[in-house]
Amino acid sequence: MAKTNSKQTRKEPYCSFCGRSKSDVEILFQGVDGATICNDCIEVGYTSLVNNNIITPKEGQRGTTKTAAGFTPDKLLKPAQIKEFLDTYIIGQDSAKRSIAVAVYNHYKRLIGTNSEQAAQVEIDKSNIILVGPTGTGKTLIARTIARLLEVPFTIVDATVLTQAGYVGEDVESILSRLYQASGYNLEATQRGIIFIDEIDKIARKGNNPSITRDVSGEGVQQALLKILEGTIVNVAPEGGRKHPEQKFVQVDTRNILFICGGAFDGIEKRIAQRLNTRAIGYGRAVGADIDRENMLRYVQPQDIKSYGLIPELVGRLPVITHLEPLSREVLRNILTEPKNAIVRQYQHLFKMDGIELTFEDEALDYIVDKAVEFTLGARGLRSICEAVMKDLMFDAPSSDLKSFVVTKQYAEQKFEASASTLTKQGE
């Protein structure tokens, strides 16, 4: 095999840097001394020069993107257009989608006006967002969809793995490393990206008073996030991992990075109810009867999040607070079939790739929804139940002569109960 490859390389020109032959690349450039280089190696070298601030990319060149060049007023969608795009992927949550559409529009409008004459007169603050809602209501999906629409780098970070600098775990600066990697190591694109910090409620401090001891995974993380959320220049390790003296760093300016934080804030409804009922007796509130006690999250305020355990300085850097409503049975039913990437459509597409036409009876879909409501897992529960129902079929169908299959209520019930009993036996 080695001799065959050497003969091939002699017959066909190849890149002196990566070793790929002419047929494996788009363009192969040849120098005067016989050395050659392919277009991919040139692009890698160009990106390295840009990232190390040796050269500045020019607008319109290959390798510059919408995110690198920046937004222009004609490219930025209006809030109504942003919400319309969100509607194609997310069912319900109109209040949250409207709030986020306005916040995102104002944020990137702020970036457009950074270099204008008016910017010197009025400085617009950043509109970081915090999403409060039960698990499975679409917090992560909303953030991911926004990033897809704007074509900006996007990364999801789990707040539970973050620790204060110098302790076991991930430093807070590592979230910027992930965004830098997601941007393809494009510094300018990174500084206009979106970071979604999930499970922000899990780093809440345990009491209302400041911690006396080191709370390295709670209050300590909150304090470390302050400067990054507000806007500062951070030395970031391009490849991530622990910092060491000989490591090269990239300076990332976080002033124009949009932070979206999400959390279930389990039990915050009690704090909201307590606040609303403080003056419910006597000459206080006259609207106590108008309170929607089935959905207390709609009344969430910064003071509620503060009382839950987030420090006031952090709450102040998350000015846009919006809630996601618990998913009703009707909404869950629509999630199964209506969105562009609906769960049912995903399964139908998977089976279509094997030449099998898959259909679901309405009674089967109703059964799946009923189980999701019973387990109170939101939209994630739908996917888990569908996987339990479809597992055996997805295993057997590709190797069979099956051309079509109808998922009935009886089939769904049988497969789900069998899967549930198996899990129960394993747990015992």
Short key terms for the protein model shown above:
alpha/beta; Helicase, Ruva Protein, domain 3; two-stranded antiparallel ribbon; 11 strands; 3 domains; 428 residues; 5-stranded parallel sheet; Rossmann fold; disordered C terminus; 17 helices; single chain
CATH architecture of the largest domain: 3-Layer(aba) Sandwich
What does the average pLDDT come to?
79
User: Which structural class fits the helix and strand makeup?
Assistant: alpha/beta
Fraction of helical residues: 40-55%
Number of strands: 11
What fraction of residues sit in β-strands?
Answer: 5-15%
Low-pLDDT windows of residues: 1-10, 59-69, 279-287, 423-428
Note the overall shape.
Answer: flat
- Determine the number of helices (DSSP H or I, runs of at least 4 residues): 17
Distance between the termini: 55 Å
| CATH topology-level name of the largest domain | Rossmann fold
Order of helices and strands: HEEHHHHEHEHHEHEEEHHHEHHEHHEH
Gyration radius over CA: 26 Å
